[in-house]
Write a structure and sequence with these properties.
InterPro entries: Na+/solute_symporter_sf, Put_Na-Bile_cotransptr
Transmembrane segments: 39-56, 68-89, 101-121, 133-155, 167-185, 206-225, 231-255, 276-296, 302-319
Pfam families: SBF_like
Distance between the termini: 5 Å
Protein name: Bile acid:sodium symporter
Keywords: Membrane, Transmembrane, Transmembrane helix
CATH topology: Na+/H+ antiporter like fold
Number of domains: 1
Length: 325
């Protein structure tokens, strides 16, 4: 698979995200309309995680599960290395942005890995696909439990406070319960979900766009763009580049140091370097005060597009070394 310029350009969903932010800036929901969107947002988040649960087959989880060293390394990169870098680099990187934006950087570091893109890039690069499916699926599920604790820990170090118990209760009710119900319903709707994955992903995307519109609209009304100068947005891009470069480099180094073969190295690189926008948007809506969600989401939105662009290049380089795709 050759690398083309179109693969480096923003994808349609990223363009839709940008359009949603512009719409929320120009026409934010207010009054009763805002209240109606709040109700729709709760329903959209529940639907999003219901579908996540329905898509996740137990066979996919079990496939490759015995490869525990690989999964342990990927989970360590996702839930230990990222947060550690976010805290360690704070004295150097935090002055580049506002405190609210760096809070979003720390939140991004606490998120689980992506599912679709991690598997897709592993496939392009001819990595260990069953292990990638297992690792990405498990990361998404573990993140429902681990991310709130990591966010609480990072907030305390960052100088903010919050209730971990309250966060866990909200996560369980709004995210985990729909996820479990969706997974239990898979025995009845699983085949239908598998047949219709192509258009069901648009339901996922519309749910995310609805949450983004509601969050950014509220943040705009509270003065988001007055509080975020252009220099801070540029600084945020630099921060995302630095963190992604470090994680990618450390992933390759650890995979080779620990003696993994090339296929496993590929899976580690693409599984351990991703952060999930699909999980991050609804989690931010649950974990943070309404007025701060907009600024908290900016880092993961930028990181999302950056990781796609960079990993296209890396996947094609791996593919040229391991065989034609």
């Amino acid at each position: 698979m050759s690398l083309s310029l179109s693969r480096l350009l923003p994808d349609k969903f990223t363009l839709a995200l940008v359009g949603t932010v512009v719409l929320a800036t120009l026409l934010p929901a207010q009054g009763q309309v805002s209240e109606a969107f709040d109700g729709l947002t709760i329903g959209a988040i529940a639907l999003l995680f219901f579908l996540h649960g329905a898509k996740l087959s137990r066979e996919a989880i079990l496939a490759g599960a015995l490869h525990w060293r690989l999964h342990l390394l990927i989970f360590s990169l996702t839930f230990l290395l990222f947060p550690a870098l976010g805290l360690a680099l704070k004295p150097v990187l935090a002055p580049l942005v506002t405190p609210e934006l760096y809070l979003g950087v720390l939140f991004m570091c606490a998120l689980p890995a992506t599912v679709q893109s991690a598997i897709a890039f592993t496939s392009i690069a001819r990595g260990n696909i069953p292990a990638a499916v297992c690792s990405a699926s498990a990361s998404s599920l573990l993140g429902i439990f681990i991310t709130p604790f990591l966010v609480q820990l990072l907030l305390e170090v960052h100088g903010d406070t919050g209730s971990t118990l309250d966060a866990i209760q909200k996560i369980v009710l709004q995210l985990l319960v729909p996820f479990v119900v969706g997974h239990l319903a898979r025995r009845w709707i699983g085949e239908w979900v598998d047949r219709n994955k192509a258009w069901l992903r648009y339901v996922d995307q519309m749910s995310i766009l609805l949450v983004v519109y509601t969050a950014f609209g509220r943040a705009v009304l509270e003065g988001l763009w007055q509080a975020v100068p252009g220099s801070a947005l540029l600084g945020l891009f630099v921060i995302c580049v630095v963190i992604l470069a470090l994680v990618l480099g450390i992933s390759v180094w650890l995979a080779r140091l620990l003696g993994f073969n090339k296929e496993d190295e590929i899976t580690i690189v693409f599984g351990g370097s991703k952060k999930s926008l699909a999980t991050g948007v609804p989690m931010a809506n649950v974990l943070f005060a309404a007025g701060t969600v907009g600024s908290v989401l900016l880092p993961i939105m930028i990181f999302h597009q950056l990781q796609l662009m960079v990993c296209v290049v890396i996947a094609n380089r791996y593919a040229r070394r391991t065989g034609k795709t």
